[in-house]
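INTERNAL AUDIT FORM
Audit reference: QA-55
Scope: verify that the stored structure record matches its stored sequence.
Auditor: D.O.
Record contents follow.
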Amino acid sequence: MISKESSAATQNVAASSEEQLSSIEEIATSAVHLSLRAEQLQKLVGRLKS
């Protein structure tokens, strides 16, 4: 009984870890896209100031 509970808990932790990793990967991708957009915006603002 205890080993089944332990196994279930381990599976829950593994599933949660996979979900967190997926979320972190999405955040990282969004951060890269945001950084690229910010760079583009800075270039456009620089052109307007010239």
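Auditor finding: record pair retrieved intact. The longest helix spans residues 2-49.
Action required: none
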